[in-house]
Amino acid sequence: MKLISYRRVSSNKQVTEGDSLEGQKRTIEQWVKRRGHEIVMEFVDGGVSAFKSSTTRKAFCDMLEYAVSNKENVDGIIVYKLSRFARNELARLQAEEELSKAGIQVFSATEEVPEDEDMAHFIRSVLGIVNEQQSRQNSSTVRDRLADTARNGFFPGGQAPFGFKSINATPEHGKKSSKRLVVDEEHRHTVTHMFDLCLNGPKLKGCGVKEIANILNEEGLLKENKYWTPKSVHKVLSNSVYAGELVFTSNVDKKNPEKIVIKVPSIISKEVFKKASESLASRRLQNNNLRAQRSDTLLVGLLKCSTCNCRLTLMTGKGGQFKYYKCKRKRITGASKCTTPNFRVEQLDNLVLDTIATQLFVPENLAKYVGDLQKILNKQLLNSRSTKATISKRQKKVEQQIHNLWNAVSNEKQLIDDFFKTRILELTKQFDSLSSELSKIDNREKFSYYNFSKKHIVDFCRLAIKAVKEGQGDPRLKAFLKTLITEISVFENELILKGPISKITKVISVTKLGTDILSVPSIIPIWRRVRDSNPRWV
Ligand SMILES: [Zn+2]
User: Fold this and answer.
1) Lower CB density within 10 Å: C or N end of the chain?
2) CATH code: domain of residue 263
3) Which of 131-140, 188-197, 333-342, 520-529 has the lowest mean pLDDT?
4) Taking all residues of the chain, what is their mean pLDDT, rounded to a whole number?
5) Ligand 1 centre from 339 Cα, in Å?
6) How close is the Cα of 368 to the center of ligand 1, in Å?
7) Which of 292, 326, 353 represents a domain boundary (last residue)?
8) Which DSSP helix (H) or strand (E) runs through 494?
């Protein structure tokens, strides 16, 4: 028989010897020789996972195309394992159907497939399904092997940490393929400089990660042509690899991850690393305290300067006795840049809460907002029904086009050429995007009705006013306000409160009367989808 050989390795580099492209070639050639067949053409896909759609496997497509268009000279395709042909059942069936129409069989060099065609098809289906399972099992085998590599003191692979590069281990250390880390001399200075900045800083008190990132970027000591960020600096300062210990966490046992320490050459001493860790920890504590204070303050995050359109931030007056909300721009660039005065926290908090109680939580107002929203939603619902019908129709059409295209291939009216490949990819994309449009609309429809009485609104207002008046100092009050209000613009003698009506409607509808209203907001999912098309209460 005249056969095409098709070989493929998966994207995972950790393939066993027998599964490498060379190993596959050997096994296939032996199989062919033993049976007196002949290989007329070879196709190879390297580093492609069979889980991806086969349209991304170039040689696979070329192979199908070649096989079908040269069917007079081709009797079959020989693969190392059926899992190397197409691991996804659907892709495999499609390809096989097309091949069998052309009278071309698929053979496996390592799995016995009986001669009888019907039986063969059945067994191949079973093997195909087994292979799908195996593919999942393989990833756990890979995890095992990585952990073993680490336990033997070698670098398990992946990207080397900044300041290191991975090289092949010398034969006396172990297998040829093992890797170990050595210091990348080009970046040694950057690493030591970083730790030095962290501990001694320009003014001997040490810098935080943000400052270190800025200094390095200014000095042009970049991280592989990328700017340093506080996060990437933190990653370096907190990694014990620089003190000679690379920690590899093995997830073989998901419940008890195992930490494996691999010895590597160090760039800094253990003592420096320890001091840096302590410095990072104490800074984190400071930051957390600051953040806690900020988040305790009721309106931080909500207030906006009406002049500059930037946030009002918290600041403490002399002696720490008074707290103020102050325009951020004014704080940074000076008082002359903004006319908005500073506000005493207590006074502004009271003013805002009072405004909310007397202007927002008024049953007539809320009933009107809810009514307005319902009108809009009803209109959207009508629209969405007709939109859905249109999309479904288009989707059916695309599905039919895909079907026709495959049929044309089966009937030999269409070659598997570049046109076919592009077209099938294009249609699949269209189909998927129509599906996602449909599910978006479905989701929106779920939130389209609010069903509550006028009395429910009246009761809600009573509870909400009580919460606002008595909840000062309760951290949940802030959460409650943030659920309803997105922005408070502060003018010298005017406040403008903004928030999407959909949110307040949602809050009203989920509030069970008689309960503590402040316990409600934390469980409310924020409903973003139609936010921008909603009227806002002002
Ligand atoms: Zn301002």
Assistant:
1) C
2) 3.90.1750.20
3) 520-529
4) 79
5) 7
6) 33
7) 292
8) none
Same-domain status, 247 and 202: yes
pLDDT tens by residue, 14-25? 445 456 788 888
The answer to whether the CB of 50 falls within 8 A of the CB of 14 is no
From ligand 1's centre to the CA of 305, what distance in Å?
5
CA of 316 to the centre of ligand 1 (A): 17
Residues 311, 262 share a domain? no
Give the Å distance between the CA of 97 and the centre of ligand 1: 70
CA 388–ligand 1 middle distance (angstroms): 46
Give the bridge partners for 258, in sequence order. Answer: 250
Classify residue 387: in a domain, yes or no.
yes
> What is the chain's alpha carbon radius of gyration, rounded to the nearest angstrom?
33
Q: Are strands 487-490 and 303-305 parallel, antiparallel or unpaired?
A: parallel
Query: What distances in angstroms separate CA 36 from CA 32, 108, 467, one per listed residue?
Result: 6, 15, 88
Helix spans in 208-256 (H): 209-219, 230-237
Q: Read off the pLDDT of residues 132-150 as tens digits, 9 standing for 90 and up.
A: 556 656 666 667 777 888 8
How far is the centre of ligand 1, averaged over its atoms, from the C-alpha of 490 (Å)? 10
The structure tokens listed for 478 are 């802030």
The stretch 20-42 carries a mean pLDDT of 87
Mean pLDDT of 127-132: 58
Q: How far is the CA of 355 from the centre of ligand 1 (A)?
A: 22
Distance 2 CA to ligand 1 centre (A): 81
Query: Could you tell me the distance, in angstroms and rounded to a whole number, from the CA of residue 188 to the centre of ligand 1?
Result: 45
Q: pLDDT (tens digit, 9 = 90+) per residue, 76-127? A: 999 888 776 765 666 677 777 778 778 888 888 887 766 555 556 655 665 5
CA dist 46 and 58 (Å) reads: 10
Give distance in angstroms: CA of 479 to centre of ligand 1. Answer: 25
